[in-house]
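Per your request, structure below.
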């Protein structure tokens, strides 16, 4: 059994353990959160840059150590660890980003619920707060100097269903939404830095996984917006979990001093439906704009 297959087998085992809980308990918020975390583990295929064995389980990260989700209102954001392994690049150069400066002031997590997507929009699950660290797509080790201007940041996670998906069907995918409020011109700076990071990372290869991010035409949303396609190819024999090509999207929208970032992936690693991505992005942009008015 390949190393990659062993990792996904361990993650699938985690999901199976969640599924055997009594039916009544599965309807509670705690079990919905546990199931979603198991799903996010399988979706780590999108950001596979290494694995760490912990207690017999494989934990994948997007550039830093895995951190258990924290209760709402307690999340703080820190810079990635200085001893993180240097990513291998295919073009021999590193994106023109430096380690973000530290302001020495703890980042607040007081972005209100009304700024985020709601159950009425995700249709499958009410979004809930998760840890904000390392929720950006892995872009060849890029760092964002604008993080030094962050005043408040919060991340929520939810499964979603399209408007035509029956209520008793499995979700169509998972959306992770991060909203950040910046001081000064930090919001505008982040947009420029993010675009540069995507351009500076045309391909990332790690073992059997190749990730190709690319900028798509920007939607006319907010004060400015960025849309990124992430094409992931897993080069393992057909029939193995995760084999083949998968397409996800990341949408970034700025409204004044605030930026929302949506990482949208299909259910259990399937490709996204572009129409559903467009709808979720538009709804998120409207909520952000209404909050910042």
């Amino acid at each position: 059994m390949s190393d990659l297959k062993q990792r996904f087998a361990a993650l699938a085992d985690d999901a199976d353990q969640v599924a055997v809980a009594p039916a009544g308990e599965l309807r509670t918020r705690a079990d919905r959160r546990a199931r979603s975390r198991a799903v996010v583990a399988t979706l780590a295929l999108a950001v596979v840059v290494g694995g760490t064995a912990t207690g017999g389980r494989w934990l994948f990260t997007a550039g830093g150590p895995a951190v258990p989700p924290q209760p709402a209102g307690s999340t703080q954001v820190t810079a990635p660890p200085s001893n993180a392994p240097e990513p291998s690049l295919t073009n021999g150069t590193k994106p023109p980003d430096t380690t973000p400066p530290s302001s020495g002031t703890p980042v607040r997590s007081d972005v209100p619920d009304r700024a985020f997507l709601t159950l009425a929009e995700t249709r499958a699950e009410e979004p809930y707060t998760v840890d904000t660290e390392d929720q950006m797509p892995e872009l060849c080790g890029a760092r964002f100097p604008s993080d030094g201007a962050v005043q408040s940041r919060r991340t929520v996670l939810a499964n979603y269903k399209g408007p035509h998906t029956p209520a008793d069907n499995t979700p169509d995918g998972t959306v992770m939404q991060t909203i950040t409020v910046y001081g000064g011109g930090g919001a505008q700076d982040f947009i420029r830095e993010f675009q540069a990071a995507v351009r500076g990372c045309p391909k990332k290869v790690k073992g059997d996984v190749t990730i190709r991010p690319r900028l798509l035409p920007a939607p006319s949303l907010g004060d400015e917006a960025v849309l990124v396609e992430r094409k992931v190819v897993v080069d393992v024999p057909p029939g193995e979990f995760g084999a083949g090509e998968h397409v996800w999207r990341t949408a970034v929208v700025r409204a004044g001093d605030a930026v929302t970032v949506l990482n949208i992936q299909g259910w259990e690693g399937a490709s996204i439906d572009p129409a559903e991505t467009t709808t979720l992005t538009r709804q998120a942009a409207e909520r952000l704009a209404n909050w910042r008015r």
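Strands lie at 51-54, 57-60, 128-130, 150-160, 173-182, 204-206, 209-216, 224-234, 244-255, 258-266.

Regards,
D.
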